[in-house]
Write a structure and sequence with these properties.
It is built from 1 helix and 4 strands; from the N terminus they run E-E-E-E-H. Helix content is 38%, strand content 24%.
């Protein structure tokens, strides 16, 4: 982030938007701003890249945990096998 006290304010251009928040970038200084609800994080492009790599790794682990929980829940609601003896 190359801002100095005399540097003009960032003019962010939108990169992505969702109901959760938005991502924008200042093409002049390279600051990427991630905004979610009342939280705003400003990162240089390299830090943003590293953060997205970390989030992708976490996302795949969360999906695996969600799949495991769904399998356990499905097994819990399956009726027990009924055996009949004649």
């Amino acid at each position: 982030m190359n801002h100095t006290p005399r540097a003009p304010a960032c003019l962010h251009q939108p990169l992505a938007e969702s109901p959760l928040g938005s991502v924008s970038i200042c093409p002049e200084c390279g600051v990427v701003q991630l905004t979610m609800d009342a939280v705003s994080v400003r990162l240089d492009m390299e830090a943003f890249h590293l953060a997205t790599q970390m989030m992708v790794q976490a996302r795949s682990r969360v999906h695996a945990l969600m799949d495991e929980r769904a399998r356990h829940a499905a097994m819990a609601v399956q009726p027990a096998a009924v055996s009949t003896v004649h």
